[in-house]
Design goal:
Largest sheet: none
Radius of gyration: 25 Å
Number of strands: 0
Shape: elongated
Helix content: over 70%
Number of helices: 25
CATH architecture of one domain: Alpha Horseshoe
């Protein structure tokens, strides 16, 4: 965020340089802004110059230096005293630590400093921003509470006429509604926020950055393939004009995730590799997320040890849970996979969008351990939440998890659950997940419905070979052979482990 105003009048050559730098920032001229603010700092260590230079460097991808400059600017504004700009610097540091660096503790510290300044000095124009930051913080652990705070920030924005706050609060409220499974409502808010931001309603360029990143991340998590592609195209002009490394990385990361889900794995790999390279220095949090997503792709390809190498050192990050658990499953360690998944589900619950694939994977792990009763209850809770919200992704994973848990005790019910999941994943254009439903159906039908089982296994094998899902293809081929059927492989198909 750029300082809203300066509490002292800076004149002479220093004042001219600050004005030049500020004008360059507003026009997206990052190099020109850097030169002007750097020249201003040579004349005086002013917090305005420090903060302005940090803003320019952030857009140029130099996150660590931005943090250092913003901390110095904050201290300078406090000493002056200038509580307005000190609070804005604290707000900036919250976003830097939370979004770019993934440091939750530091971000909460800066949020606390901002809130204290707002209360102590009655900074009414910033009160709504403080509420929005608290919504971001609370929303990760408690989406309903976070959403309520985001809607309070939205009311404050409309009462105060702050369009930037309104658009950012709309995006956050929409994202938390999506996370709760209320897709139609949530994406309506996100679409509105994106339209306003890209339409130039806000005064700050980082409003476009916040709304765009929030939208694309939600599309990725909710398998909203077409919406993601449409908004990425709509935002291409912004990225070309202003060259934001953060927006570039977020778009590549979530484009890669969408492409992976829809079976376009070569393109997904290219996008994720780009995201890894662009975030390596500037966005450590996004770097870890991109590595985790590439690890999930490697697991799908049957390359478990490569996946393990990608998340080495990031195993305790929430974003790495699916990949870490998948590695344990590939190594034949369902107990370790279950422990990782249960820990994350205790933190987020089993009724939200993030939990959907984790509940299904945990049902697989617990099934391998003979602990299906708990998995069945968990899957039903997820299904109830998905049904109440009308969220097809949550329902698809819940139905597949139920199919896994019912196989040994209620075969007909298991088949119904798996067929529902298969149809849903087909509608969602998620071929790997649909292929896995075919394979589970074949295993459930088995010798009792041999011809149907062979047909399902062949559908699974064809899907896996087309994708390059080697380990799943090997499992389908083995099942076909156990049914006495020939496991014909597609040309160029390879067994896993090679």
């Amino acid at each position: 965020m750029q300082p809203a105003a300066y509490d002292r009048r800076v004149t002479g050559e220093l004042g001219a340089l600050l004005e030049t730098g500020q004008a360059a920032l507003e026009a997206g001229g990052w190099e020109a802004a850097r030169e002007a603010f750097a020249a201003a700092l040579e004349r005086e260590e002013s917090p305005e110059a420090q903060f302005g230079l940090g803003e320019a460097l952030l857009w140029l991808g130099e996150t660590d230096e931005t943090v250092r400059l913003d901390e110095r600017a904050y201290a300078g504004f406090r000493r002056r005293p200038d509580p307005v700009n000190a609070a804005i610097a604290a707000m900036n540091l919250f976003f830097l630590h939370r979004v770019s660096l993934g440091n939750v503790a530091a971000s909460r510290g800066w949020l606390g400093r901002m809130e204290r300044l707002v209360e102590a000095h009655d900074l009414e124009p910033l009160r709504g921003w403080a509420v929005l930051l608290r919504a971001v913080d609370r929303g990760e652990a408690d989406p309903p509470a976070g959403e309520a705070l985001a809607r309070r920030a939205l009311e404050a924005a409309r009462e105060g006429g702050d369009v930037d706050l309104e658009l950012c609060a709309l995006a956050q409220a929409g994202a938390l509604a999506v996370e709760a499974g209320r897709m139609e409502e949530g994406f309506a808010l996100l679409d509105e926020a994106m339209a306003g931001a890209l339409g130039g309603e806000g005064r700050r360029l980082d409003t476009i950055l916040i709304t765009s990143c929030t939208m694309i991340a939600c599309c990725s998590r909710a398998a909203q393939v077409r919406r993601a592609a449409q908004w990425i195209r709509a935002g291409d002009d912004f990225v070309r004009r202003y060259g934001s490394p953060h927006v570039f990385t977020v778009c590549r990361l979530h484009s890669g995730n969408v492409l992976m889900a829809t079976g376009r794995w070569a393109e997904a790999e290219a996008q994720l590799e780009d995201a890894i390279q662009s975030s390596r220095r500037a966005d450590p949090a996004l770097f870890a997320e991109a590595l985790a997503k590439l690890a999930e792709l490697r697991l799908a390809q049957g390359r478990a040890e490569e996946a393990a190498g990608l998340v080495a050192g990031f195993e305790d990050r929430p974003i790495s849970v699916a990949a870490v658990a998948g590695v344990h499953m590939a190594r034949g360690e369902p107990g370790r996979a279950a422990a990782v998944l249960r820990r994350r589900l205790r933190a987020i619950g089993d009724r939200c969008l993030e939990s959907a694939p984790l509940v299904d994977l945990l049902a697989e792990a617990e099934g391998a351990m003979g602990a299906r009763r708990t998995a069945r209850s968990r899957a039903r809770r997820l299904g109830d939440a998905g049904s109440a919200a009308g969220c097809e992704v949550m329902l698809a994973y819940a139905e597949r998890a139920l199919g896994r848990t019912e196989r040994d005790r209620a075969r007909a019910a298991a088949i119904r659950h798996l067929e529902w999941a298969l149809d849903a994943f087909g509608r969602l254009e998620m071929p790997l997940e649909a292929g896995r439903c075919h394979l589970l159906l074949a295993a459930t039908q088995g010798e009792r419905e041999r011809e149907a089982a062979i047909a399902e296994a062949r559908s699974a094998l064809a899907a896996f070979d087309a994708l390059g899902a080697a380990r799943d293809a090997d499992a389908a081929a083995a099942l076909l052979r156990s049914l006495g059927a020939r496991a014909g492989r597609a040309p160029g198909a390879r067994a896993s482990g090679r």
